[in-house]
Amino acid sequence: MNNTSTRKILDASFTALAYSSLAAVAAALALFLFPIFFNGAGAFIFRATVEHEKFLHENLDADLSESEKKAISESDAARAPLYKMMREYESPPNAEKLRDRLAKSYKESVEAIGGASVEILGALDKKAPERAESIRNISKKLWEPYLSTVRESVQESAKNGTSIALSGILAENEAELAATARAELALLGKTKRLSFRQKSLVRRIVTELPSSEISAALETLESRNRAYASFRDGIAQLLGPRNKQEKEAAKLMRQKYGQTRMDTARKVLENSVLKITVKERDKSGAEFMRRVSVSEYFHGTPVEKMAEYVGKNADAMLRPHIAAYPGFLFDDPYDSSIFGGIWPMVLGTFYLTFGSMLMAAPLGVAAAVYFSEYARGGKLTHVLDTCVGTLAGVPSIVFGLFGLAFLINTVRISESKSVLAGSVTLALLVLPTIIRSCEEALKAVPNSYREAAFALGAGKWRSIRTVILPAALPSMLTGIIISMGRAAGETAPIIFTAATSTGAALAICDVFTQPTPALPWNIYNLCTEHEMAERVSHVQYGMVMTLILIVLALNGAAIWLRARLRKKMKF
Amino acid sequence: MSKNAKNLIMDTRRRAVGGIAESAGKAVLFCITAIPTVAVVFIIFFIAKEALPFFGDISHLKEFFTSADWRPSADPNPHFGALSIFYGTAMVTAGSCAVAVPLGILTAVCLNEIVGSKTAGFFKPLVELLAAVPSVAYGFFAIIVFAPLLQNHGGAILSALLFAAGVPVAAIAALPVADFVSARFTKNARLRKISGFLFSAVCAASVGCGALSLSSMEISSGTNALNASIILAIMALPTIVSISQDALASVGRDMREGSLALGATRFETIFKVVLPCAKSGIAVAVILGLMRVVGETMVVWMASGNSLKIPEPFYNFFEPVRTLTATIAGEMGEADQSTGSARYHVLFAMSFCLLAGGLALNAASQWVGSGFKFRKK
Amino acid sequence: MEDEKQKRYGAKTGEDTAISARNFSVYYGNFHAVKNVNMDFVRGKVTAIIGPSGCGKSTFLRCINRMNDLVDGCRTEGSLQLDGIDIYHKRMDVAELRRRIGMVFQRPNPFPKSIYENVAYGPRLKGGLSKDELDAIVETSLKRAALWDEVKDRLASSALGMSGGQQQRLCIARALAIKPEVLLMDEPCSALDPKSTSRIEDLMGELSGEYTIAVVTHNMQQAARVSDFTAFFYEGNLVEYGATDKLFTNPAHKATNDYITGRFG
């Protein structure tokens, strides 16, 4: 290539390319860390609702301040109208009137049947084709008063908000039909002895038409009631149980409180309260699910008013406010981490990390001392040295399997997974790194220190202990702390040896026998296997941020220590 | 004769005691130092021991490597075809290397050769930061942040990435080609320059159009081979950058000065002198990066989608795949751990393959790196 | 033949000999670094060892307190005696030997500890000293090394914060603190500025008499200034050894003459 300007351009563009690669790395880091830190901080400081205070007060013995008490009572007051509307909708005051009306028309129809025995008997005697037709006509005529009432009340129910009551009454009526048919048969039996076939025909005449009409009406009502139920569930999710009885009946903690965080509350409001999923049938009769807005679906009914009220007064009912929740770090999780904090995981990570360091650090330092001070480069030393490198090259999941196959299934250092087994596995994992960094640190100690110590009459061990180790200490500590960060973040080795997804904080005396929750494993678990991933989103981010912060803090401490002690004892 | 001669010459007993203490101490240290060696032997032994019941059967062995039918717990006819799993591992590894190796080496070159020590001092801790982040955090990012992004705006993201990376590379790569070709036809420098620019512009434009055409693409699932590859590449990046940089730093200053003094541009100096000198070190960096990728569990488990199908066509990175590590991690929990079912053993067979691969890569790195002394991070 | 050599290169008879080498050789693997040296160090005097780089003078000096044990593949032949005791005796207590024969190195090498701790390091190794005794030892040693006045107010501060000359005097104080009989100095001023050098030279003059001092130096003026006796090494051989004024004014060998007049080296 001898074209000078092309060469220059090539040079410049290559430089630009190299710079952009640097920028890409920085951008990757920023894009990675930003969402984690931004959302992670949201686990500690967020817009909370009154439910948050209620939860803290009732489960974690937090005292309520006057203003919080006031906020809770105000939110209760704001909820009262909604609950009243809902109560009225579920058991309307005019339900009795409706019941009477239907009962009356039912009775009317039944009496008419009683009066039409002759007609029925006559129809029964007819020949096959006309018989069915005439029986149907009689039935239609006889039931008309009742059925028209039913149709009317179904039509009115949506507007009056009596769907629930009506479906109850209709179900009762439907149950009565059989008794009515029996009574009618008894009546007819007095006049004429009926054959079995005739009996069943009569039964059909009496029940078929009303029953099919009633179930059609019930289907309409019930699809509406199901929609209402899902709306009501949405309200319960948003605001928590309506009263004490409901709260006591609730089994899961998530049923005892509404949304504690405003961000999830908004989502619930959007997705489960103002919009719901309804089941519908298409023309061919196949069921399908449809998302509808509550105000459209319940247009012109009391439910529309409820939805409107909720939409307008959500803030008044939840009282959003900025809350700091440092307890996220120190509280136990409740109900699959939906409430509370992450303390057991933090503690478990702490146990595993310190446990592994307790083993790996002294062993690593000792081996490094051997390599740098005692080993004379023979074949044996070469083998030992190579194996350190080889151990560093073993994939971390293989360490986990080894821990399972050897420590737990063969040596049986514990009955099942335990912190001990996990710590030993992690210690093996970080041992090569520690040995290498300590060796490095020891080799960086100037030989003149050794000479000076020997010249003053110190023996080998004495000189190592009093001069070389202290001089190498900062660098060794740096290496050990960085390895500690690695041990804290490793997941694969502890899956089969130490980690459990649920459980309370482990007491220190149980570490030899019990598995523990740990941050890395629970992050995985919460991300992939949680049944309500949306509600624990903040916990996921909070956990990841905590883990990254722990690791970064350790690394930062190491860097700070290195810089500080380097300055103090420069060599 | 000195007054203290007796003190100077030890009696036999004192000497023996001293000698024994010294050798005992040394022996203890030796035993501790042998722990990694013992651990390596034990790991190989125990993994092999648990894998043996599976490998002992030849028919199993053949199925393991040639079939993609993986139904390890089917009763009564379990199938242990791990081909798709091996293929998934290879695919994700190749994908992440395609991203991480050029980017890593370029970054190392930039840090070591182009920017000043101040800028390098700022960026190096950032790279170390990338290395310090736990793998599960990367996995979290992959599945919670990146996967939905890829699923919803995958086409746009890819086209932007390809545009940003591909267009300049194409433009630069076209220059020497154009120069070389035009030299055959004309001696006119001006003409050659213009033709070079034209060709480079055409190349850049065609790559750019290709990139833009991607923007309308639909990606059915955000957890796929591409996601895992990109995240793994970010994870392998610090290893590649820091070791490559050590390799570059170990190339003497005199080499560079010699080249520059002969009138070479910085680009030529880097490509013709520095990189060839550092190539064994860079090779080590790549191998160690590869090791990190192959052995990584959490990211692939969370990001790769865990599908047992070999993607169609075979280079389709938008399909979910499954890797060895993810299979082991995912299925060992379900396999009957203590009694040792067939599934338990086949998972150990898998990890044996993984271990063998890791050890081979490790040996390769030591063999390649034997000519080059580098600081191991 | 031996006796003749002895007469020519040995110290004058009748003077008290601290260290004596007889047919002493040092090998690094196959390399014969010091060849059949016969030499006596006179007690209480300063003996300078001069010679060009790589002539074996440092090797010889480091053999006297067996610092060469630390070098792989180093072995010795012949005899080297301290007060009539073979230094390479197989039951020699090397640590104790080094306490008798102190050493100061080419570059000041204080430990990364406080000034006090540096001086107290040697005495502490032996143990059994009270705080007061230790304080006294530190004070006298620093006084002997002419450092006390400069550092008495900052004994607890790091030794690495001192100047090079101070550090080297601290190393001398540290060596003196274990009360040696002999003090070996391996080019003690080569890393120092002229002012510090002259202070160290003054110090050597003050210390002679009480200590037998062997100093390896590159600097012939220094050898002439501070030493009572001078030995000239060349290619592993002890070429000439005698009283300093005689050697510098009237060398017996051509090689010595060439070296001190600056023809090589």
Overview of the molecule:
The complex is a heterotrimer of chains A (571), B (377) and C (265). Chain A is mainly alpha-helical. Chain A is built from 23 helices and 6 strands. Chain A has helices at residues 4-41, 50-59, 66-90, 95-115, 117-125, 128-160, 163-191, 196-239, 244-249, 253-256, 262-273, 294-297, 302-318, 327-330, 343-374, 379-392, 396-411, 419-443, 447-455, 460-489, 492-495, 519-528, 537-568, and strands at 45-48, 275-281, 287-293, 321-324, 333-334, 339-340. In chain A, the strands form 3 sheets. Chain A has a two-stranded antiparallel ribbon. Chain A has a two-stranded antiparallel ribbon with strand order 2-3. In chain A, strand 5 and strand 6 (339-340) form a beta hairpin. In chain A, helix 2 (50-59) crosses helix 3. Chain A starts with a helix and ends with a helix. The model of chain A has no long low-confidence stretch (mean pLDDT 85). Chain B is 76% helix and 1% strand. Chain B is flat. Chain B starts with a helix and ends in an 8-residue tail after the last helix. Chain C has 265 residues and is an alpha/beta fold. Chain C has a single domain, classed as Rossmann fold (3-Layer(aba) Sandwich). Chain C contains 11 helices and 10 strands. A 6-stranded mixed beta sheet of chain C has the order 6-7-8-3-9-10, with helices on both faces. Chain C has a 4-stranded antiparallel beta sheet with strand order 2-1-4-5. In chain C, helix 4 (115-126) runs parallel beside helix 7. Chain C is globular, with a radius of gyration of 18 Å. Classes of the chains: A mainly alpha (571), B mainly alpha (377), C alpha/beta (265). Chains A and B meet through helix 1, helix 15, helix 16, helix 17 and helix 18 of A and helix 2, helix 3, helix 5, helix 6 and helix 7 of B.
